[in-house]
Each structure stands twice: as structure tokens, then as C-alpha cells.
């Protein structure tokens, strides 16, 4: 079981993400555990005050390091203690896959002007979900909970369903369709109802390449590409120079016809 512990001043913000949908079902099946820890319970004053004014002056309040430490010490040992911070490592699918291999993850969700800088000595990693400012770490925590929990074995109904998702394969996902087969003049591609699984897989891979090239070509630098992918990218308008930049392998050479 993978256990998530979130240290927060507003546990009710995270409760719907912990209790509902796939995460809630995974908890009820004993596949993951989610613990919401209210840091106010570890304040040492009758008003449960967890913050104070910053030394040196300035606007806002800062969460005290001693409060964070007492909250952390109340928990079982963790594999990772993670602080959400604008200075943190960008949260990516690769990081999610790494965290899914752990047994106990603890997350510190800041508010106000954040934590006392000495809190950094209590953590093993800092994470950021992007270069923008939010009012607290709970929304970031919800993102990480959903991204990591779905990678735990048996959480998703299909064990392979996440492998073709965007970023898991190194590419954007291929387009998906369902009924109706025709909608406002737009038809579902015929190959998808052909029953030819090899042709469907081939179409999906090519569409993933096309979408990635058009919308996120930066992903191709780190994608695992095959010689056939290189041939498809050339047909999709890529240049040999771009293939070299993406470290793509040589496309297969066309077969020569035998002379009789």
C-alpha cells in the first residue's frame, strides 16, 4: 500500500480528492491510504496559531518551522518528505512514476508567505507544478495525488491503460472517439472500426506523432523513437535536421525489388 500524508492548514480542501472517484475507490479497496493532517493541531498555543510575522519586516505571515517539525514527527517514517515550492523540481510524469514506487509520501502544503526557510532542512525534495503563483499548496497536492495514485498497481481497471497516456509514452496521446460515429459532418476514422488491431495500433502511433510534432515538438527530444517513427515524421513534414536534433534513428531503407 502507498500512503499519502498531507500536512495542511485546510484539510477540507483536499478531502473531496481523497474521498471521491478513483482515489476514493482505491482507498476503500486498501490499495492506497490518504491521511490529512491539520497543522493547527501542532501549534503550542491556545489559539492554534501556526504563523508569525517575518523577521526583517514585509507583508504576509510565515508558517513556523517548529509547527512543521512537530507535525512531521507525529507521522510514521516516510520515504519522501516533499515541500511544494516555486524553487522546486518540476513535477513531471517521470517524477510521478518514481514516487509511485515509494511506500509513504509526506507533503507540506504551504499558505500565506510559505514556510520558514529552515523547514527546507526537514524535507527530502521540493516540487513545483509550474511557474505561476497560487494561494496555497493544496491544489498542487491534489494534482500530485491523482497523478501518482493512478500509477499504483490495480488502481486503474486496466493495468496498461496509463502506458499510452500523454507523457507516459514520451508523446502526446492519440485522439479518442466514441459514439455517435458521425457528428456534424465529422466521422470517426474508419480504421478504428475495422477490427484490425495491428492497423489500429499503427494509426494511433502515427496520430500521436502528428499531434506531438504539431503541438509539443519539444517532447520529441526525449521521446523513444523507432526507425518507423522517423519515417512517419518525415512524411508528416519533419526535416532530416529535425530528426537529428531529436536523436531519432535512421528510417528504414526502402526494400529493393528483386530482379527476375
From TrEMBL:
It is an enzyme of class 2 (transferase). Keywords: Cytoplasm, Methyltransferase, S-adenosyl-L-methionine, Transferase, tRNA processing. InterPro entries: Alpha/beta_knot_MTases, tRNA_m1G_MeTrfase_C_sf, tRNA_m1G_MeTrfase_TrmD, tRNA_m1G_MTases_N, tRNA_MeTrfase_TRMD/TRM10. Residues 216-260 are annotated as: Disordered. It catalyses: guanosine(37) in tRNA + S-adenosyl-L-methionine = N(1)-methylguanosine(37) in tRNA + S-adenosyl-L-homocysteine + H(+). The keyword ATP-binding does not apply. Its EC number is 2.1.1.228. Residues 244-253 have a biased composition (Basic and acidic residues). Residues 2-221 form the tRNA methyltransferase TRMD/TRM10-type domain. Its main location: cytoplasm. It is found in: Cytoplasm. The keyword Endoplasmic reticulum does not apply. S-adenosyl-L-methionine binds at residues 110, 129-134. PANTHER family: TRNA (GUANINE-N(1)-)-METHYLTRANSFERASE (PTHR46417:SF1). Specifically methylates guanosine-37 in various tRNAs. Belongs to the RNA methyltransferase TrmD family. Homodimer. This is tRNA (guanine-N(1)-)-methyltransferase. It comes from Deinococcus xinjiangensis. The gene is trmD.
